[in-house]
Amino acid sequence: MNGLDSLLNVILTTDFAFSVLRVTTPILFAALGALISNRAGIINIGMEGIMLVSALAGVIISSYTQSAWVGLLGAVLAGTLIAGLLAFFTLKFKTHVILGGIAINMFASGGTVFLLYLLSGDKGSSTSLASKVLPSVDIPLLKDIPVLGPILSGHHILTYVSIAAVFAVYYLLKRTSLGLRIRSVGENPHAAQSVGVSVVRIQYMALLLSGFFAGLGGAYMSMGYLSLFTRDMIAGRGWIAIAAESMGRSTTVGTALTSLLFGAADALANAFQVLKIPAELIATLPYAATVIGLILYAVSETRKKNRKVKSPLAK
Amino acid sequence: METPLLEMRGITKVYPNGVVANRDVNFSLRAGEIHALAGENGAGKSTLMKMIFGMEEPSEGEIYIRGEKTRLLSPQDAIDRGIGMVHQHFMLVPSFTVAENMVLGMEPRKGLGIHYAEAVRMTEDTARKYNLAVDPKAKVEDLSVGMKQKVEILKALLRGAQILILDEPTAVLTPQETEELFRELQQLKEHGHTIVFISHKLKEVKAICDRITILRGGRSEGVFQTSEVTEQEISRLMVGRDVVLKYDKSKLNMQAPVLTVENLSVNDSQGRALLNNISFSVHSGQIVGIAGVEGNGQRELMDVLTGGLRSGASRGTVRVQDTEIREANILTIRNLGVSYIPEDRMSQGSAGEASISDNLISTHYRSKTLNNGVFLRASKIASMAAELIEAFKIRCSGPKQPIGMLSGGNMQKVVVARECSANPKLLIAEQPTRGVDVGAAQLIHEKLLELRENQGAIVLVSADLNEVLEISDRLLVMYEGEIVADMEDPSSLSEEELGLYMLGIKRQEPQHIRRTMNDVEV
Predict the structure, then answer these.
(1) Which of A3-12, B105-114, B226-235, B276-285 comes out lowest in average pLDDT?
(2) Is there a contact between B334 and B423 (Cβ–Cβ < 8 Å)?
(3) Which of A134, A180, B21, B348 is the most exposed place for a label (fewest CB within 10 A)?
(4) ipTM of the complex
(5) Are strands B323-324 and B314-320 parallel, antiparallel or unpaired?
(6) Exposure pattern of A231-254 as b/e (b: 16+ CB <10 Å)?
(7) Alpha-carbon distance B348 to B412, whole Å?
(8) Angle at CA A167, nearest 5°, toward A48 and B141?
(9) Which residues of chain B neighbour A313 with C-beta distances below 8 Å?
(10) Tens digits of per-residue pLDDT, B177-220?
(11) pLDDT of B520 above 50
(12) Is residue A315 over pLDDT 60?
């Protein structure tokens, strides 16, 4: 009982709500990226690897230039570049996009450690590199409001960017030409083609954008969430993001909300550490939430589909 | 004489796999006419139109637009030259609104975003100009098929189409929607548009077209004023027999019924009848042929007979001997002694990467002779495969060769060998000789007759009229989901007469057709 009390004491605080937003940020970025490529009908499962490469790129470039902003730019460019590579192989040379994604993840996992060792002599983390961190921002007026202030103000700049990105992606998909074409290519590529929309070019754009957002997520990990790079530091967030996109039914709002849900599970796992439960078990919480989420999603999808095909011969 | 709006001269199209779709075809369009392109399935209509729309390039021959020699390398080229196409499978994005579908690829902008109000206005303007009422803000997935078609036509018009190609536009429409479409096409004609109407429905062709070009077997049979040819003449030109096959058929020795179909109906999701109250029976030792222009219910009938239709889609009874199979699964049906040669040997009939012997056992590897409960009996399988390869004269390097490496004819022989070797009580053969060479076709026909000799019952669905007329003991003709003719001794039938039934110009009295059912009680 005592444990539960102390847990509630942790959860029912503004600090906890603050930490939910903090851990949601990388998932949200990657999920928005996955959303764009998925809507164009080309699934990018290399999010994890792209984030990892971007995280390292941010650390290396910021430590060499001594500018966090240049580091951010480098991280985003690295992410876009890797996604471009995936696009090049899948769209130009017709490699299977899943295999391409797997290759990127494996390449990133090994390649980042190799590069890290080459530059810092350390295979575990980048402590010896004097990398920079992007600033946190206090929002005037908002920060003085009780309860809301401590929850919403004082976050890392990229956390605010991620929230703005939700609106930007919503606008992109719903209101712009590119968004319309992305959705048409994903839904009926023949229709897009028949009116002169280049399916391949749109899918290129979508994959590059997915890399751009994964790059932001990676930069946040090593220049915000932590202030250094450690091996395999993305720790499944890229995968959780793909799950969030899928569970959010490939809508911008749904994806943002499920990202928040997974973020909350992640934060909860941290909070649970005050209880005397093995840390390993707690660490499974976000993943268990993913599995349960996907099951619920699959069940509801199947029901929906069954209802649709009740009428005979619907194909 | 005025220059034609569009002219194709000496067009030949050979696909990379060697199939000749068009041979030395001439086709010309006069400005402001409705021009029918008629022919059976596989006559080369679609390929010809794909070349006009820039989706395929002719192997030989030239295309002139307004007297100017033109190469059309992509649909965009064709659109730029004022050619629009309404495909049989609509090129629409279901989750988009009508207006969004209309402007896709040419979106009006306002700042960063799409000027949606402008898109709606463009849609309304085009719709008003051509008197084709649509709701620009409705989602396409909620529209009826007829409405979707309207959106497709408007899409082409918005892009400045002067020539509009409609690929079998009435195939998916109800009679009311068809009438409406015809009124709309007349209006477009009055606006000065030129329309190509691809169809094999002669009544419709006669009703709205000015001229007609008839294709058969990839060649043009000529171009006519529709008012100057009768439906019978068109039918004769479309459906001709080239070579007459002759087989030594033994006398019909019909025994008990094996397949009995009674009052079978199938509706699609919109409630349209795809099969309407079909009844017939097939007896042991008898081949019943089913003829008809593709898309008149044959596919659905085959699906019901072979367990390919989802439960709840059909009504009526279908019995193999005394067992009801209408809702049965494929394994149950096969275990009753039913074999099936599917129309599509590539995707349904065989597994391309697997060996010939694996393909030969794929429908009966469960049998005790091939299987000891855990492992397959390799030596039995090998000897059986060797026997079948010999008996069916399958040209291959050996039983272990992947079937995908064989020619179409040899691949089909493997499928036929597998289905016939099971000594089926009932064989359902769907287009068994489509696209195979004469030699293979002859062998397959002989094997079907051999099975008939051995008291097998056979349902033969084929677009090859030679085949159904020559092989069948009884011939059923399907039109719009119904059996419109039932004929004994089909080999004496003329193709002209068959054509009239197939194209829905003539039909027999219902009592006459019900006769087959009465046989059952005899």
Answers:
(1) A3-12
(2) no
(3) B348
(4) 0.83
(5) antiparallel
(6) bebbbebbbbbbbbbbbbebbbeb
(7) 11
(8) 90
(9) 266-269, 274, 309-310, 313
(10) 888 899 999 999 999 999 999 987 788 888 999 999 999 888 89
(11) no
(12) no
* Nearest beta carbon to residue B92 from set A183, A188, A313: A188
pLDDT digits (tens, 9 = 90+) for A60-74: 999 999 999 999 999
How far is Cα B228 from Cα B222, in angstroms, rounded to an integer?
Answer: 13
Rounded CA separation B469/B464 (Å): 9
Kindly report the CA angle at A176 between A175 and A178, in degrees rounded to 5? Answer: 140
CB of B308 less than 8 A from some CB of A: no
Rg (CA), chain A: 20
On chain B, the residues whose CB falls within 8 A of the CB of A309 are 310
> Which chain B residue is nearest to residue A308, measuring alpha carbons?
B269
In terms of pLDDT, which residue wins out, B249 or A169? A169
Domains and CATH numbers, chain B: 6-238 (3.40.50.300), 257-337+424-521 (3.40.50.300), 350-417 (no CATH)
Q: Does pTM surpass 0.80?
A: no
Choose which CATH entry (3.10.450, 1.10.3470, 2.60.40, 3.40.1350) describes domain A2-308: 1.10.3470
**A240's tokens:** 């959780």
Q: Give dist(CA B228, CA B206) in Å, integer.
A: 10
Q: Which residues contact B247 (CB under 8 A, 6 or more apart)?
A: B445, B446, B449, B470, B471
Taking any CB pair shorter than 8 Å as contact, residues of chain A touching chain B are: 171, 175-177, 180-181, 183-184, 187-188, 190-197, 309, 311-314
Q: Are strands B109-110 and B426-430 parallel, antiparallel or unpaired?
A: unpaired
Backbone phi, psi, residue A124, to 5°: -100, -45
- The C-alpha atoms of residue B184 and residue B186 are separated, in whole angstroms, by 5
